[in-house]
Every structure is written in structure tokens, then in C-alpha cells.
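Deviation from plan, reported transparently: cobalt (II) ion complex.
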Amino acid sequence: MHRETIRVLIGKPGLDGHDRGALVIAQALRDAGMEVVYTGLRQTPAQIVSAAIQEDVDVIGLSCLSGAHNELFPEVVRLLKEQGADDIPVIGGGTIPEEDIPFLQANGIRRVFTPGTPTSEIVSCIRELVAERRGEKPAEPVMPSPKKIAHVAIAVRNLDAAVRTYTELLGFRLLGTETVESEKVRVAFLAIGESRLELLEPTDPSSPVAKFLETHGEGIHHIAFEVEDIEGRLAALKRANAQLIHETPKAGAGGHRIAFLHPRTAHGVLIELCEPHGEVDVHKRQA
Ligand code: CO
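Because the crystal trials were delayed, the predicted structure below was used instead.
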């Protein structure tokens, strides 16, 4: 039952004798990998419906330049219903005034394209209609977007010197400092507006930041995204085979719950997920 290739019937109901537009669309659909059945000029709605059913098409595209679209397009939909084939979506185009579009849509034409519509838009509309008819859901991301970038963290050898540079030279505001035992680092939080920097100085040679400084020298260490439901995110990432450094959250600076993803997961960048702790903004409280 399931086939990959999309089959489209292009029908020209009515009396107009111009099919250049229809042929251009047909070629664009073939170029997009679809099979196209073209009925030729001056077909009746009944002929179009019967060809669509015989050819087992996924979508019917109607083109009309004669001005009779308000009679001919709904008639195709009515006949499909009569034949029990109204699960085949019908779209239409041609010289159709904007004000006729609501009437056509109310009468079962799923999409109406006016002259000048890029063919790529018609191609993606057909793909969406076919995916919907076949019960395929569009690909969803593994999880909703993070809320924002919580901070960018920089590894430094001497925290006090780095704080002076960032406040006196670069104009950041110092929000506070704190020692995070789990990571063996001393941390300073700096702010410009809503944006935060985190400066990290190792407190012990076994700290991950000490190892980072040994290998890379000073520089950007990680980017933190603020998220909700950090456990749910870590579980979803694990199911998607992402490489995690922490599979369960741990306590970070400010009592926030944090977890790191391996740089291999994010094209060489160490990513921290950070779920704020309660309602209190600890960074502000410390300021
Ligand atoms: Co951080």
C-alpha cells in the first residue's frame, strides 16, 4: 500500500485552450521526483475524477484559465465524494481572483495558487498533503527549544585578574563569585543586560577546567542553555544516541541543576544544560 513516489494528476477542466502553465507545473513536479499524469485539454470533471481513480493518484491539481473555476473545481470534489474517493486532496490554480479563494476552499479545494506562485511552494504543498493523507507526521525535534543562552563560560588561570579585565576594561558588571565543589572551580558571574559570562578558575589540578587549561590554554570553555525539565531532556538526548557527560543532573553554581553534553554531540562545543533552581535568581541575590 505504501509507496514512496508521489503521483499527481494534473487536470484541465473546461473550455480554455491554453495549457502552457499546466505543463510548466507538471515538469516542475517531475523534476521534484513526482510522477505526473496529465489529462490534456478540455476535460470534464467526470473524466478527471475517473482518471484520478484509475491512475491511483495521491493528489489532483486543477488548472483553469476560463473563469469557470467556481463551477468546475467544486464539481470535481463533489464527484470524488460520490465515488468514495474524497480522500484524494484537490488543489487548484490558474487565473483565479483572490476573492474567489475562500469560496473554493469552503468547497473542498485544499489550496488555491494564484499566478506567479513559485513552483517550489506547490511542490512542498503537495508533499505536505500526501504526508497528511498517508498518516505520516512531520519530523519533530528531539525536544523543545531551550529558553535562552544562560551564559558563556571562559576558563581562566587567575580569576581575580580576569574579573578586573572584564569589569574595568570591558565594562561588565560583577554579580558575584562562588566556589563550586563538584567541578572544583571558583566562578565569577558577570553581566551585560540580560547576558551572562561565567569565568572559571580551577581550585585543584584534578578539576576538569585545569585539564582544559593544560590542553587548550585560556579561552571559551562552554555555552550553557537554560532549559526546563532537565531530566526529560537528558533522557530524550540519550534515546537519540547523543553523547552525554552527565546522564543525571548535578548541582552547579547558584544551586542550579546542570548537566554537560559531550563536545562530540555539538560539533566541538561543550554544552551545559542548566535548569534554574527555584524562583530566586541567586546571581542577583549575590550582587
Ligand atoms: Co556553566
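The two ends are 65 Å apart (CA to CA). We consider this an acceptable substitute for the interim report.
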